[in-house]
């Protein structure tokens, strides 16, 4: 079968669409609870075969001219854009994302990332270092020693991707890894793997050689465990929960595999008395709507200074009134379902926990009245304290908690930093000098000052239990590189 087509229900191993040993499992549309498609169930042996194919393809691909790698990634971007509408339909059906999000934030972002790393393939990989004059000694005669720091591909990279954005997350791993000359085994999240197979088909059509890109799936942890544990794998790039990341890190540690981990978050939004509250509400409100709160960078934990606390809670409550929850295919829907029944149950259990812990339920808290679909009403808790589990733990749903503070910025900083997580925090203040001063004190990999926007060349990653390493922009090219020193004397 042509590698330029994506037949349903087959693995992609060594450039071939391969029948799965374990049959298939159903991918469920979170909005309708109907079957969106069938995904292949790979055996351990097939996952190992994918890693072996990647290992065999690595020598030739790593020596391919950067210009050729760039051309292939550019063509992949063109092909993804060519079929964007069809891709978005599949993404919406398997993720529950709204139609606009599936097209504009999933498929379009994936195409943009392949385009960005087509340019990235051409970035210099050598850095000249100042010469060093060494006197004669035990190491030899006196001389002037030159040196280069050279970035080399790591080898075979297993990319374990998240369910909240199968297009953008997978592209953010695969594109820079390929640009640097690595080969990849992609293990998508079991809930929504169909989009990643479409990405593989686009790459095959673009001219990626057999074995350079492989995709394997499974409904249980077994496929992921094999993709991480294979002796042919040199590096693991993972996006997902901290608990799973810790288990992957244990395997990587035993075998000295390199790792890049983008894990959980509980983003603090510190809102001071002089803040533009409308701006803060718009930013915090994205938690309720964007991916139905299933995003690790969301400002889910609001630390509000007392002078604006009541007005902020009031404005957030009003914001909720404008959010239509419902069918993600409808044009006016803002909040779609969460990914699965199990995850809906998890989010609802946290909402019940918040009630029991004494948080004040201001809005939401119930299940929207739909016969089908894994919907959770956007929920706002006020009068929270930092010792509550709903404040400390990642809920990964449309739930915002608000913690008041009476003191100065030192108290706000202390409350924000009192967390196991540190991915992205936020500061809202009319005093830009204070906002930047506070931002530098927050223990997080990124800080948004009066915005939830992102600069897509800025390093992305977490402090503490939010991850290891940095990617995005040129930082991703470094993440998928090993640095080699080349020294000589003249």
UniProtKB/TrEMBL annotation:
Pfam families: Aldedh. GO terms for molecular function: oxidoreductase activity, acting on the aldehyde or oxo group of donors, NAD or NADP as acceptor. InterPro entries: Ald_DH/histidinol_DH (IPR016161), Ald_DH_C (IPR016163), Ald_DH_N (IPR016162), Aldehyde_DH_dom (IPR015590). The keyword Oxidoreductase applies. Residues 17-486 form the Aldehyde dehydrogenase domain. Keywords: Oxidoreductase. Belongs to the aldehyde dehydrogenase family. PANTHER family: ALDEHYDE DEHYDROGENASE-RELATED. This is Aldehyde dehydrogenase. It comes from Streptomyces agglomeratus.
